[in-house]
Design a protein that fits this description.
By secondary structure, this protein is an alpha+beta fold. The chain has ten helices and seven strands. The protein has two domains: 2-160, no CATH class; 180-355, Histidine kinase-like ATPase, C-terminal domain (Heat Shock Protein 90, 2-Layer Sandwich), CATH 3.30.565.10. The chain crosses the membrane at residues 12-36, 56-77, 89-111, 131-151. Keywords: Kinase, Membrane, Transferase, Transmembrane, Transmembrane helix. Residues 172-249 form the Signal transduction histidine kinase internal region domain.
């Protein structure tokens, strides 16, 4: 699991190239310094290349032994002490672990090298020198890995933000398109035309509620959340228009405590559920449709008796899918939809604005 996550950041070949580059650089620096300082003088080019090859093999092995513990430490600290919180403590702990790992690796590599080809120098001096070199190299590697991870995470975050913004724009377009549905507009204007001739007072009320519906759409379509109170006001306007068309064949009840009215949810969530209920069920005198809206803890429930239209075209479920996506943009909770004892029940989470559970994207 750990290696799969690490290689998600670093494909093995990239990590190999990074460590190989660091190993070559360290060995060139060490061999050159030792030769120029007289600590270990080379006898010629062949001696140089043999020592370089031997050093690279040992350094690369040590680098892998160092890299994976470093990555584990970085991953652990990113969860327990992320940057921005107790930064000084994280730096001290991370440097301490880096040095400790370096000393352990230095001991292992030095004793292995000594067994293969015993050092002519004092072994304790070689151990100290190698420990210092590997400690410096490990601190450098830790910084490189941190920078690499930060770059990758920043790139992923930017890509995710762009993807979410495109997705949110598409969702907003779909919601707006569903609101300016030509069938809804056509039916509403037909109803209004009939009302004008026989009941001017109700016709004026119809126009007022109709304008409320579209004003709400335009005001909230760009907002990530709205209050439940505003959603319920919109619901009354929307159902008023539908009741003018269906009369007493369409009924609804609302039972939501005032304490929940300031909770938030994605705008036009109720419209999606109400339209879904009316669109896919028979609504006539012999089979009236009853919609109940009530709360269950911090959930809003929309329930209707199930009487599906026989000739109804297969539903794409686009409205409900978009609703789930809109919830995913602001909270970890998801709506649920189920059929139970002859009723269709939709349950959507209500978000307490004081709990900071939602985020504006």
């Amino acid at each position: 699991m750990f290696f799969r996550q690490i290689h998600g950041y670093f494909p093995f070949w990239r990590l190999l190239l990074l460590l190989l580059g660091l190993s070559v650089g360290v060995q060139l620096a060490v061999i050159t310094y030792n030769h120029l300082s007289g600590y270990y003088v080379l006898s010629g080019y062949l001696h140089f290349f043999l020592r370089l090859a031997r050093g690279i093999i040992l350094s690369l092995s040590a680098a892998f032994l160092i890299a994976y513990p470093d990555l584990f430490i970085i991953r652990y600290f990113n969860k327990s002490i992320p940057w921005g919180k107790q930064t000084a403590l994280r730096i001290l702990l991370q440097m301490g672990f880096a040095v400790t790992i370096a000393v352990i690796i230095a001991l292992a590599v030095t004793f292995t090298a000594n067994r293969i080809n015993p050092y002519s120098e004092d072994l304790s001096g070689v151990l100290i020198t190698n420990a210092l070199i590997i400690a410096v190299a490990n601190l450098l590697m830790m910084a490189v890995l941190e920078g690499w991870i930060y770059y990758i995470e920043s790139k992923k975050a930017t890509l995710k933000a762009e993807t979410l913004e495109k997705e949110l724009s598409q969702i907003r377009f779909e919601v707006l398109k569903s609101q300016i549905n030509p069938h809804f507009m056509f039916n509403s204007l037909n109803v209004l035309s009939g009302l004008i001739n026989r009941d001017t007072v109700k016709a004026q009320q119809f126009i007022d509620e109709f304008s409320q519906v579209y004003r709400y759409v335009l005001e909230t379509i760009e907002q990530p959340v709205t209050t439940l109170g505003r959603e319920l006001d919109f619901m009354h306007s929307y159902l008023f228009l539908q009741q003018i068309r269906y009369g007493r064949n369409l009924g609804f009840s609302v039972d939501v405590p005032a304490a929940l009215l300031n909770c938030v949810l994605p705008p036009l969530s109720l419209q999606v559920l109400l339209e879904n209920a009316i669109k896919h069920n028979i609504v006539n005198e012999s089979k009236p449709l009853r919609i109940e809206v009530y709360s269950d803890g911090y959930n809003l429930v929309v329930k209707n008796n199930l009487q599906p239209k026989i000739s109804s075209a297969a539903s794409t479920g686009l409205g409900l899918k978009n609703l789930v996506k809109r919830y995913a943009l602001i909270t970890g909770e998801e709506p649920s939809f189920k059929i139970e004892t002859g009723h269709y029940i939709a349950r959507i989470p209500l978000i307490n604005p004081e709990s900071d559970e939602h985020t504006d994207r």
